[in-house]
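Forum: Protein Structure Q&A
Topic: Joint prediction for protein chains with partners

I've read a bunch of threads here and the consensus seems to be that you should model interacting components together rather than docking separate models afterwards. I'd like to see that in practice. Below is the full input, 438 residues plus whatever partners are listed. Could one of the regulars post the assembled result?
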Amino acid sequence: MHRDGSFASIIMMQKNRPRVTLMDGGGIMARERKFSTEELFQYTKQLLLEHGYEGFTFSLLAERLEISRGAIYKYFENKEELITDFMLFEMKYFLAELKEIAELNDFDRQFEFLFELIFRNREIHQLIEIGRQIPSSLNEKVRNNTQNLEKMHLEMYSYMQNFVTLGKGENKLKPHIPDVVVLGIIFQTIAIPNHFGIPQDLWVQSIKEIISHGMFTNK
Amino acid sequence: MHRDGSFASIIMMQKNRPRVTLMDGGGIMARERKFSTEELFQYTKQLLLEHGYEGFTFSLLAERLEISRGAIYKYFENKEELITDFMLFEMKYFLAELKEIAELNDFDRQFEFLFELIFRNREIHQLIEIGRQIPSSLNEKVRNNTQNLEKMHLEMYSYMQNFVTLGKGENKLKPHIPDVVVLGIIFQTIAIPNHFGIPQDLWVQSIKEIISHGMFTNK
DNA sequence: GCCAAAAGTGACACGAGTGTCACTTTTAGT
DNA sequence: ACTAAAAGTGACACTCGTGTCACTTTTGGC
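Posted by a regular:
Agreed with the consensus. Here's the joint model:
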């Protein structure tokens, strides 16, 4: 645990800086963490999806992590800060993967790639909607976080915009349909809850086909 | 107000029955209501969509209605009861409209009808998802309400099932796509938030076209 | 063994939502 | 005018989440 110099811990350390240089060189190590940041964010995600923004509490999170509530305050001043940090964490990973779409140079491959990526990160869309519920904060850190989120959100759209532009350039996508509708559909359909437990394969293929060629037969 | 013998007030009166027969014949009328049930449900809808299930409170609702919180308890024992009553109210209206689909006897007309109906009731889908968050209650009335909701939900699906069966029978819908995927897509795509403010007409037509024939060109 | 530093704990004061209830207000019928 | 009934109010006791803080625990380095 003490050697995770990952993205997440960098975010976390912004407030409670250790008074020794940082936990790499040969500083005093102090006691071991009872929970990793990855663990914390994982439960945060679960709880956000289960209870929504307003239903998320530090008490619930502490319970899942089997620590005291007070411990969380060592790393995050409040709910807004924790959740925006978490959103940045998720978004960063998503964007890092999305970036690779630029390597593929024809539309068909990009479509396959994008579809698979969004499908593998189904919750992202729901989380983004939850993110819209965060009230504008007075807290410096939180304002900074939401600004960065905004930026990453735009960056995300710009990659997807390129995808659509390519599709229209190759005459693969219908030119009269607005770009944001194309993107909206891809995002939204993937989030359809499979309440009836259709097998994954069939489910994915069906959705992909409808998006591509519709649910109507071509007579 | 005192002469609304509507659906809503019938639900409401289950608990606090007036001691005179009921408010039709010539009973004593007592003082006038400061808010109608329709008004109450309208704000309930707003608040549920804004804050989600856990964010919804009697305090917020009372504030919007410009009454005291206590007044609401005259009609509903608690949040669960109010929200399930509200859900029944919404569902009832939706189902009443949906029923009429059976009058149309070809698939194309049913498709137009269904699409228009769901589009006009865009929030229904979101509300149904919020409804899933209601914890199973000990309260008699609430258990009864959720059971009825379940029934209406199934009834809703059965009407739509008929629609899909008809479509497949007429060879209009692709036979290999599972029925629930067809329904899921129709429901979900209509709920796409139009964040970029595309004109309504263009928005609806684009979505309808993608659902029907896909976003790909037929080359 | 002692120290410094970070991790973690539990108690406290506070604010907000809940559910209840005795009370007041308004109303129509007599 | 008087009354019964329903509508509405506001105070009370309670629970739960919040944020803080002095305190204890664990750790590696000296």
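Residues 1-75 of chain A form one domain.
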